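#structure-requests
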Amino acid sequence: MTKDDDADRAVRLAYDDRGDAGRVAWVTFNRPHQKNAIDQAGKELFVDIMTGLRQDRTLRAVVLTGAGEESFLGGTDIAQMARFDFEQAERSAYFMHRVCDVVRTCPIPVIARINGYCFGSGMEIAACADLRVAATHAKFGMPEVRLGVPAGMEAAILPRLIGWGKAREIMLTGDTLTAEQAFQMGYLQKLVLASEIDNAVEAWLKSLLKCGARALRLQKRNMMFWEQMSLTDASRAGINNFVDAYETDEPNRMMTAFVNRKRKTD
């Protein structure tokens, strides 16, 4: 894995080169002594990194994680929030939305590798990823109401993932959830021992790399349409994306290879 950024940056970027299959970007929240809580500078840096990745056609996936073994992202830096005036609060909330939005609208699959504490904005960011795996020692929660502010920004995604009942419960009480509870309510797709979390991520990456690079981008475009459109409009958009796949030779090439492999095994 190659690193592009200094080790002491609040958000680190590294690349995993998979040869002809392309590259995987690893984006790491890097404030382990603050449970990787993200401050304003970290938010702006994260947005810059993720925006840059959108332009990289060699990328096949992005993995989000936290430095160390204790925390994915412990939320927004509370010490900084405690000093906000009105304008600073507005800027922080705006950038938190942008942080989440660049994850949710990333044109390639995003995996959240949740290796520990995942609170507040951390839970929102992970919710915007496509795939979420957590270690069994991870803890989850939306504690904003216990700090005098409501959960906002992309917390609106949570009812879609876990239903209105559970979403109301965790946002109104601020209670902490175990990783098992987060898995049972459908927030996580995988729950594994800490020693197995990298294997779980790798299993997803291997599956993604078997897929057509352009087909995956079109599939993500489809899913974003499905979130915003009526069923009829989403179906029409799906037709257009299916046809768009044939603008390159990817479908013919991959289907021909599939047919030829099948003939060899018959």
